[in-house]
């Protein structure tokens, strides 16, 4: 549940991944890409500096006419009128140009995708692969020693091994990290063996921008003072932990009571009422209302009894989905970011497994292994279409045949429903078991804002 605040970060991180990540290019395609980028940039510069740009300075002739107000007032009025018209014309020209720029960007994006597809079939790639590794290596070599040590490469002590096909190893760090050398340096600046800086918010921002996974560090996270033993299971499932069980990051709230109460505060918070275990969390998925809210037991009843045993909840807020599944002897791993609150710590305190990674990342599970994947309010139209399609394929990959994908409350606009998302889900290959689309009913919601909930199945064959 709830990722709103980070939407832009994630969006940005994916764009980066799409354009910057992936395989190296052949010389000719590199050249074409280069030309395209130059052209697009020239186009942007042209818009910003060209004849259509707004000139906010009042010409001196007009300033003079202000001193002669009476005599020239009618002239001035006429001039103002014509200026207004000119502005209106400029505005429509700019709108038109923005539209064209938009389509140029889309064109560029699709060309890049096409180029990367072609690249994968090209056999001259090896040289380029080595070239890009050298570049990454050079970049790392210019950063401080701890960055070099954290990011490698390191020679294998026993030399070449056929299992890896190499004599060296690169610690796995997101390729996106290389886009942020300054932040990397900051992240890896600490006293080795000492206490890590209290920088989880900073680190998570790096992750959301595409530096995922982060490099490892040689320091100790701060320990909570007056740590008390966790509440024993199963009471832990519905117990709010002690404030002393964690180190409080610089969040808006600095206590669990504040987090519980924040649903009453004005302003925007992700998963606003998630920490209140006596509130809405208590009833979620408990009743099948026949609309967007499917009941958990009704969903499980679509499979033979006991055959849904393991799965994951993508963006699972405070872990209530996993808690309810645990009560049904089903093990769910919950992924969540710490969005202005200690979501991961809270889930863990309930005796459930949380993992801290964003929706940009490939799911760390092997194919055909999961009985169920659930996701609520996270996968929505803020995700670029191409990225969403990759995400859906990844979910399909980890589900076993006959496994369930419960896509809960997917938000979009009416036209996108039929135009984009239904065809996409069909294309990926899911079979619909249950489907409900409905207009968003929240106060202030646009008429064209929709949700859909879907129970999908990975086909048996
Ligand atoms: C401007 O108009 C007012 C009244 O209409 C008049 O009293 C004044 O003399 C005029 N000033 C000039 C500079 O014409
Ligand atoms: C550019 O495209 C996006 C979606 O593709 C759209 O939301 C936006 O309104 C467009 N902007 C202009 C100026 O056309
Ligand atoms: C969960 O498993 C325990 C132990 O095997 C069993 O006693 C209990 O009835 C199960 N609960 C459900 C809801 O299946
Ligand atoms: C989508 O298409 C279906 C069937 O063609 C139609 O009934 C429905 O109204 C459409 N939904 C929207 C939001 O346009």
From TrEMBL:
Methyltransferase type domain sequence ranges: 313-406
Domain of life of the organism encoding this protein: Eukaryota
One function term, GO molecular function aspect: S-adenosylmethionine-dependent methyltransferase activity
Keyword flag Kinase: no
Basic and acidic residues composition bias: residue spans: 1-11
Entry keywords, A to Z: Membrane, Transmembrane, Transmembrane helix
Transmembrane region(s): 34-54
Disordered, as annotated region: 1-26
Gene3D superfamilies the UniProt entry points to: Vaccinia Virus protein VP39 (3.40.50.150)
Keyword check for Membrane: yes
The protein's name in its UniProt record: Methyltransferase type 11 domain-containing protein
């Amino acid at each position: 549940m709830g990722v709103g605040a980070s939407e832009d970060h994630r969006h940005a991180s994916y764009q980066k991944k799409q354009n910057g990540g992936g395989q190296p290019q052949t010389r000719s395609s590199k050249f074409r890409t280069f030309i395209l980028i130059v052209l697009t940039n020239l186009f942007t510069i042209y818009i910003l500096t060209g004849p259509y740009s707004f000139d906010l300075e009042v010409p001196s002739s007009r300033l003079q006419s202000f001193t002669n107000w009476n005599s020239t007032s009618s002239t001035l009025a006429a001039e103002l009128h014509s200026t207004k018209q000119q502005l209106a014309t400029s505005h429509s020209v700019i709108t038109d140009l923005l539209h064209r720029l938009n389509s140029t960007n889309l064109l560029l994006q699709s060309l890049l995708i096409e180029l990367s597809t072609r690249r994968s079939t090209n056999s001259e790639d090896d040289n380029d692969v080595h070239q890009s590794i050298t570049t990454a290596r050079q970049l790392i070599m210019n950063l401080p020693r701890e960055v070099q040590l954290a990011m490698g490469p390191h020679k294998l002590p026993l030399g070449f091994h056929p299992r890896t096909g190499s004599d060296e190893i690169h610690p796995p760090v997101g390729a996106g990290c290389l886009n942020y050398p300054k932040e990397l340096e900051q992240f890896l600046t600490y006293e080795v063996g000492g206490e890590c800086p209290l920088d989880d918010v900073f680190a998570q921002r790096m992750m959301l921008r595409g530096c995922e996974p982060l490099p490892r560090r040689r320091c100790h996270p701060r320990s909570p003072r007056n740590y008390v033993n966790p509440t024993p299971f199963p009471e832990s499932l519905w117990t709010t932990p002690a404030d002393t069980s964690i180190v409080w990051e610089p969040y808006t709230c600095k206590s669990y009571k504040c987090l519980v109460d924040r649903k009453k505060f004005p302003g925007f918070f992700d998963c606003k009422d998630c920490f209140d275990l006596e509130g809405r969390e208590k009833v979620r998925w408990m009743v099948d209302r026949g609309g967007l809210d499917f009941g958990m037991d009704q969903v499980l009843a679509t499979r033979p009894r006991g055959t849904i045993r393991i799965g994951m909840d993508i963006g699972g807020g405070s872990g209530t989905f996993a808690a309810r599944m645990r009560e049904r002897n089903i093990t769910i791993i919950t992924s969540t970011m710490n969005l202005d609150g200690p979501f991961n710590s809270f889930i863990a305190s309930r005796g459930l497994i949380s993992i801290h990674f964003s929706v940009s990342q490939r799911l760390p599970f092997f194919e055909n292994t999961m009985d169920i994947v659930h996701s609520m309010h996270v996968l929505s139209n803020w995700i670029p279409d191409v990225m969403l399609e990759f995400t859906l394929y990844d979910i399909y990959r980890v589900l076993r045949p006959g496994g369930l994908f419960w896509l809960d409350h997917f938000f979009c606009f009416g036209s996108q429903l039929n135009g984009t998302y239904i065809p996409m889900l069909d294309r990926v290959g899911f079979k619909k078991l249950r489907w409900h689309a409905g207009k968003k009913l929240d106060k202030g919601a646009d008429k064209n804002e929709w949700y859909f909930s879907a129970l999908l199945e990975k086909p048996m064959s």
